[in-house]
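re: ur msg from earlier - yeah i can do the glyoxylic acid complex, just paste it... oh wait u already did. ok heres what im feeding in:
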Amino acid sequence: MSKATILLMGMFYQPKLDELEKLYDCHRHWAAPDKDALVASLADRCEIVVTNGGRGISAQEMAQLPKLRLVACFGVGVDAIDLDYARQHGIAVSNTPDVLTDDVADMALALLLGTMRRIPQGDRFVREGRWLAGGMPVTRSLQRKRIGVVGLGRIGRAIASRCEAFNTEVGYFGPNRKSDVSYKYFDDVVAMADWAEVVIAACPGGPSTYRIVSRAALEALGPDGVFINIARGSVVDQEAMIELLAGGGLGAAGLDVFDNEPNVPAELIALDNVVLHPHQGSATHPTRAAMGQLVIDNVAALVEGRELVTRVV
Ligand code: GLV
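and the outut:
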């Protein structure tokens, strides 16, 4: 039997990419000198696309592959994939949930502590020899803070339970109140930000959460407030955030995600009250390997006519 043809839209964890490439007839879109010619040459036989959360795939690109049956996404967030088009055309979409929850939640806490205790700034303070001239200024404390989590899904819950271990009070915003948690519920992000001293974004990206952490929410969080984002750049009003951070209207931010990655605005890079990280929430060897394995397992399920392991659409 001939090997199934796969169009690879975006890079993912190299050892698992190598495995996938040994198993199937794979074609790297990003490496093709003439991408349109590659897609056209695969159009009559390509049933599977593998992409990553940042790259996704547009409706227009899917339309060029009339035999497409599966888009397997390396990543839990599928906001860069046109899900409406996929639904309308009977194309299944899979993602990589659960296996990354703990590492992403750890990253949220690392950014939270790093931002509040100014760990990268302290690192620079030592390296630049400034300690020799006197101690580093004292910082904020995480202890006894009120923390508002935007989105109490799998990752939001894992963040909330870690926050509890730091003697904090947790509240959350989401479309629905959860019956199995005792955290304070808010049906409005601005109201939660007004109550909270820290807001952590942990919701999916996409149109339903676009700029959900609005200028008003950031203003409500205020001059002493801390904003952490491990979700998507799209969920916060990035322009307002930079303006408020620069002008003292928002205390500090720890950011793993941005609009238009990997382009981080110079105005944000110039600020001393931010900790910036290059979208590394799930980027540990064991988690990236598990995510890659889920991609392989979903592809194998489709090829062998079984139910997908982690189907979104
Ligand atoms: C990472 O951002 C993911 O969606 O898995």
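cool cool. The pocket of glyoxylic acid is lined by residues 53, 75-77, 100, 281-282 (CB under 6 Å). ping me if u need the other ligands too
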